[in-house]
């Protein structure tokens, strides 16, 4: 089946079913290996990624594949049923692939995009810094001095996803003084250049998942490796955030659905029947609230994605969606753990690991607090400026402002 020629909803649903079957039959039974020692995890990951490629399930929303985010959405939920799904299906490289495709020159396409689309390279995004404020780009200190056809890159980045295995990084650096609007650039930096090093691996709630702190010490990068034009980094960051938050939300929603399925399975199990769980009002309340959170977040995500595909999406829609999905994931996994009891806190179920991922979801791709504050300000400004209580109308007429731009890759 040619993914790029898909148009019917039946074709997309069939692809989603194939993805779901792969996750349930191939990935889920091997999650303990994928969470194990690095050598075991890497071998398992590479094997499963190869099998996904053989079955035509790898890179489904890379450039040239599924044509709309709406089509990909139903597939992405199935990829996200396992924490390890997005990496195995190449989905965690999608955002970099689109940014390189849209804004890279011929050299960037040849040296970085083509190997990425072939599965021969791994990308990472390096924005966050240990001494800056994540939601305030003006505090970024990494610098790239331009001269003699090269950039000299100096600075530190941290909590960079896939840093342990990335072939190259898209680094946000200051290339000019003065106005932030034209002072930042995105630079594609191979990981093997002299002066580049991984300072330390960083854990997330006690677990290591490839995030690290990076050092760039007078790294010389060809000036042709600037993504887009010099000084357009802030605009590219904002563009990246919209698609990135929607992609993350789709995968998190799939993880929330899996937790809900586990909750229901436990209630219907022999042990659940012995405890008469389905007769308990609080259990029914948890089931209702979990289901409500998922379908509400899914409806919001689908509506926002339709607007995104129509180039009519704004920051408020995207940021509200991201917060809604992260909250849904946290609520559902917490309810499932409560139903499982002590077993849910152990490695006997995937819930303890998903719980860590759910907590991180409130930080990754923009902290919920920063997004809520920014959206709340915009909504209030809209009503004050336009004198309307129709929130939908206010959103559509408020000009885009300075939204939070935190994204630890």
Strand order of the largest sheet: 1-4-5-8
The CATH superfamily label of the largest domain reads: Butyryl-CoA Dehydrogenase, subunit A, domain 3
**Structural class given helices, strands, pairing?**
alpha+beta
Distance between the termini: 32 Å
Q: What profile does the largest beta sheet have?
A: 4 strands, mixed
Count of the separate structural domains? 3
Beta-strand percent range: 5-15%
- If you compute it from the alpha carbons, what radius of gyration comes out, rounded to the nearest whole angstrom? 22 Å
Q: What spatial form do the alpha-carbon principal axes imply?
A: globular
> What pattern of helices and strands is seen along the backbone?
HHHHHHHEEEEEEEEHHHHHHH
Fraction in helix? 40-55%
CATH architecture of the largest domain: Up-down Bundle
Task: State the CATH topology of the largest domain.
Answer: Butyryl-CoA Dehydrogenase, subunit A, domain 3
Overall pLDDT confidence = 91
Please give the count of helices: 14
Low-confidence region ranges: 393-409
Summarize the structure.
The protein folds into 3 domains: 3-89, no CATH class; 123-230, Beta Barrel (Butyryl-CoA Dehydrogenase, subunit A, domain 2); 235-397, Butyryl-CoA Dehydrogenase, subunit A, domain 3. Helices cover 51% and strands 15% of the residues. It has helices spanning 9-27, 31-34, 38-54, 69-79, 85-88, 94-103, 106-117, 233-268, 270-274, 281-309, 315-340, 351-361, 368-386, 391-397, and strands spanning 123-126, 143-147, 150-160, 168-174, 184-190, 196-204, 207-222, 226-227.
């Amino acid at each position: 089946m040619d993914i790029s020629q898909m148009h019917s909803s039946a074709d997309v649903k069939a692809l989603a079913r194939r993805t779901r079957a792969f996750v349930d039959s191939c990935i889920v039974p091997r999650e303990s290996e994928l969470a194990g020692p690095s050598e075991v995890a890497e071998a398992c990951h590479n094997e499963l990624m190869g099998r996904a490629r053989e079955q035509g399930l790898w890179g489904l929303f890379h450039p040239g594949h599924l044509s709309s985010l709406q089509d990909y959405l139903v597939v992405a939920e199935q990829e996200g049923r396992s924490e390890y799904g997005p990496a195995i299906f190449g989905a965690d490289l999608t955002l970099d692939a689109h940014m390189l495709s849209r804004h890279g020159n011929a050299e960037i396409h040849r040296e970085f995009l083509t190997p990425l689309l072939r599965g021969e390279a791994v990308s990472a995004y390096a924005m966050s810094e240990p001494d800056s404020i994540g939601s305030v780009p003006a505090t970024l200190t990494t610098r790239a001095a331009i001269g003699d056809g090269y950039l000299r890159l100096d600075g530190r980045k941290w909590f960079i996803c896939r840093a342990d295995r990335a072939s190259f990084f898209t680094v946000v650096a200051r290339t000019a003084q003065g106005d932030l609007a034209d002072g930042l650039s995105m630079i594609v930096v191979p990981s093997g250049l002299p002066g580049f090093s991984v300072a330390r691996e960083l854990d997330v709630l006690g677990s290591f998942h490839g995030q690290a702190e990076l050092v760039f010490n007078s790294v010389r990068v060809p000036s042709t490796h600037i993504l887009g034009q010099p000084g357009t980094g802030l605009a590219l960051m904002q563009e990246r955030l919209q698609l990135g938050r929607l992609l993350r939300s789709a995968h998190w929603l799939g993880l929330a659905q899996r937790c809900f399925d586990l909750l229901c399975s436990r209630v219907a199990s022999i042990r659940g029947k012995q405890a008469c769980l389905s007769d308990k009002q609080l259990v029914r309340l948890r089931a209702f609230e979990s289901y409500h959170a998922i379908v509400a977040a899914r409806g919001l995500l689908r509506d926002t994605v339709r607007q995104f595909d129509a180039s009519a999406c704004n920051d408020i829609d995207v940021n509200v969606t991201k917060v809604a999905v992260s909250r849904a994931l946290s609520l559902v996994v917490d309810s499932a753990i409560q139903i499982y009891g002590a077993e849910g806190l152990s490695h006997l179920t995937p819930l303890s690991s998903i719980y860590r991922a759910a907590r991180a979801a409130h930080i990754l791709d923009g902290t919920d607090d920063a997004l809520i504050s920014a959206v709340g300000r915009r909504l209030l400004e809209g009503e004050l400026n336009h004198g309307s209580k129709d929130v939908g109308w206010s959103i559509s007429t408020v000009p885009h402002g300075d939204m939070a731009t935190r994204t630890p890759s």
